[in-house]
Queue: 3 jobs
Job 1
Amino acid sequence: MQRSYNWEIVTSLLAVDIGNSNITIGAFDDQELTATWRLATRETRTVDEHAWALQGVLRSKGVEPDSFDAVVICSVVPPLTEAYVDALAQLTTVEPLVIGPGVRTGIRIHYDRTQDVGADRIVDAVAAHQLYGGPLVVVDIGTATVFDAVTADGDYIGGAISPGMEIAADAMFRNTSLLRRVELIAPDQVIGRSTVASMQSGFVYGFAELIEGMLARFKMELNPDAPEDVTVVATGGLANLIAEHTESFNHVNPELTLVGLRLVHEMNNA
């Protein structure tokens, strides 16, 4: 059945964040994020299948792929980077900017091997510092739980990586005989009265405590004279869930990476 739309989304920049679990897509009209989409990450898809899936989700909100003036891509899944570039070539004549070595980001990276820092971590740091200032810590709560430290001057100085809730849940399910998969929601109390509630408590409240503890340590190292002045920005697919059970976050911005992609694109096209 033909679908009709009673709105029009004006687009100029398509931002694509290819993560380990999801591909997050955003459409920008100038500085305004006008629409977002999310696809499951599937490395086994062909280029044609990626193009078909991307075209389908864009059109679900009345957006044509060839309506964009520019495209920017951030990827932590190398096999999908080239596949998405090729897929986009089927849908638009615009050559995408792929975040990587040689791309201007506006921040200095203090890391033993700068090429080892995930592109999404740098993009998040760019966006967080631009939006909220520093010193700051970005905590990305997704497939992994990632902490990144940025100085007041906007220098990226490193971070920490721990398993995410979904990875922990999958590992527990695979390696135990009597425990099953559970929905990642917070039970009413920390002391679970059932196996399901006990697991949910361990995941949600346990990770909230992990994050609070790591943030306290980060603040002391990043700004020892005034750790309370360090801003904490949470992002990622599970940020809102954890935010309900901690007071450690100053800002929650699930679209931080998309905003960072826009900012980096602007720096490289000024």
Note: The first helix runs from residue 47 to 59.
Job 2
Amino acid sequence: MSDVLYIEVTIDNKYYYINDIDKINNIIRIIRYWPLKSFSNHILDGEEYQVKIMTNNETTEYIGQGKYPKGYITFKNLIGDNYD
């Protein structure tokens, strides 16, 4: 994958724009090293999510629905609390 410029995350119509390199790396690590559906473990149960990873030559998109309530806190910690 080329260098990631930024990541866009939408969770139940809440939009997050992430260009902090450490947060980007954390999210990429989750998506790359776990099965794709495992990302949904980090989103509140029932919430729809969409993740777009933008590089200079491609966009990768993940869409799904959350599964485990406690995982949402983990995801919020990854992207930071000041995105609300």
Note: The chain has one domain: 4-83.
Job 3
Amino acid sequence: MLITEPTREHLEILTSQAFMMPPPQDDRQRSEQRFLSPEQWQDLLQRAGLICEACLPDEGHVLAPLGQRLFIARRPGNA
């Protein structure tokens, strides 16, 4: 499974789409953040019974500050 998601607040998204986004009903509710962090995504995938094979780009990569991540996940037993 491939998932692309923003993992930090983006002004351009918040000013245009935030009004259409329903209030969060998960871990973000307490923190008032709109997007899950890479660590929160990995935890969520694990709780859903999936294995997160990769989260790209890595934290030290030059593109990491852009706050857009690709998560590669799979079910256990599937290669």
Note: The helical segments are 11-16, 28-31, 38-47.
